[in-house]
């Protein structure tokens, strides 16, 4: 069966990373499904369902490890319902529109919820760069609270510099520290506030390498660690974060060609992420509320299912 050109174009743009970023990828996938449904010429409910599943598979195969992409497909296709083509079409269009509207509101809603954890005069420690974490700080500032920040530089790509600049533009006093100094400066922090690349069903958090070690130190110091992440980062197909494949990045982020010539023949590994177990996390803040990590699975299943019976897979009984 033929797919609408919008699905093909969207798939190509996601695969080539012309379309990038969690929210942007999710919105593009939902919009492509809405177009496919709205312009489908299927004459039977069975044909319509099959056509939307094919569209979902085409989109999913582009970047299956980008968590927001399968979540967009799950959200829309799980809500496809009806006994006639017209009702099926309407349900897909409605679900896709709802999903896009959720994305539009998500960060501001998340920020308002996260701001409630921050008190006037608090000092937050950050790691890497997260617009969701920054949204919590910005919302707290809008409430009239004074905050200060201790920002880890976050090697090897120094994403902490981006965070430091963003916080200064908000008017937040910033102390930038080397990563290895985090334990020392935790005594001056009231919260650790980080983002997430993915959250597993057990509440484990996959985030920039160094997050897990920071969380262990924060727990030992009695500093609460809060994860700010939109629900599109939830990963229902992954029971624990330790089953997520960790990207290994180019060694030249760590050692230059000149360094390599000086050091000699040694192995260099540069993992992009690590996994923080739920026992080291105090709360996960989303646009749907804040949750203890062990409870996040309930929200995950409500929005996206259990990640087992994927809605773009051909049912065996059809």
From TrEMBL:
Record keywords: Carbohydrate metabolism, Isomerase
Enzyme class per UniProt: isomerase
EC number: 5.3.1.29
An example molecular function term from Gene Ontology annotations: ribose 1,5-bisphosphate isomerase activity
Protein origin, superkingdom: Archaea
Catalytic residue list: 128, 197
Binding site for substrate: 20-23, 63, 207-208, 233
Biological processes per GO annotation: pentose catabolic process
SUPFAM superfamilies recorded: NagB/RpiA/CoA transferase-like
Recorded catalytic activity of this chain's protein: alpha-D-ribose 1,5-bisphosphate = D-ribulose 1,5-bisphosphate
Note: Reaction proceeds via a cis-phosphoenolate intermediate.
Primary role: Catalyzes the isomerization of ribose 1,5-bisphosphate (R15P) to ribulose 1,5-bisphosphate (RuBP).
Similarity comment: family membership: Belongs to the eIF-2B alpha/beta/delta subunits family. R15P isomerase subfamily.
Protein name: Ribose 1,5-bisphosphate isomerase
């Amino acid at each position: 069966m033929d797919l609408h050109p919008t699905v093909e174009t969207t798939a190509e743009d996601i695969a080539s990373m012309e379309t990038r970023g969690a929210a942007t990828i999710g919105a593009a996938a939902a919009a492509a499904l809405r177009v496919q449904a709205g312009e489908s010429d299927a004459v039977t409910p069975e044909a319509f369902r099959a056509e939307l599943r094919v569209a979902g598979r085409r989109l999913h195969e582009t970047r299956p490890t980008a968590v927001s992409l399968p979540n967009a497909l799950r959200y829309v296709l799980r809500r496809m319902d009806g006994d006639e083509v017209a009702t099926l079409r309407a349900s897909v269009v409605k679900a896709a529109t709802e999903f896009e509207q959720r994305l539009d509101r998500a960060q501001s809603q998340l920020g308002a919820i996260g701001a409630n954890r921050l008190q006037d005069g608090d000092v937050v420690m950050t790691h890497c760069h997260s617009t969701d974490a920054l949204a919590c700080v910005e919302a707290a500032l809008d409430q009239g609270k004074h905050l200060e920040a201790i920002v880890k530089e976050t090697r090897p790509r120094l994403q902490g510099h981006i965070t430091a600049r963003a916080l200064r533009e908000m008017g937040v006093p910033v102390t930038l520290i080397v990563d290895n100094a985090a334990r020392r400066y935790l005594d001056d922090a009231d919260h650790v506030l980080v983002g997430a690349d993915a959250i597993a069903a057990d509440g484990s958090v996959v985030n920039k390498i160094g997050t897990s070690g920071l969380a262990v130190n924060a727990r030992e110091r009695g500093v609460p660690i809060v994860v700010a992440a939109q629900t599109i980062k939830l990963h229902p197909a992954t029971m624990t974060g330790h089953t997520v494949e960790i990207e290994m990045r180019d060694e030249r982020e760590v050692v230059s060609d000149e360094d390599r010539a000086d050091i000699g023949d040694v192995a260099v590994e540069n993992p992009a992420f690590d996994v923080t177990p739920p026992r080291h996390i105090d709360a996960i803040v989303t646009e749907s509320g804040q949750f203890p990590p062990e409870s996040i699975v309930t929200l995950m299943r409500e929005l996206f299912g259990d990640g087992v019976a994927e809605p773009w897979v051909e049912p065996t009984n059809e």
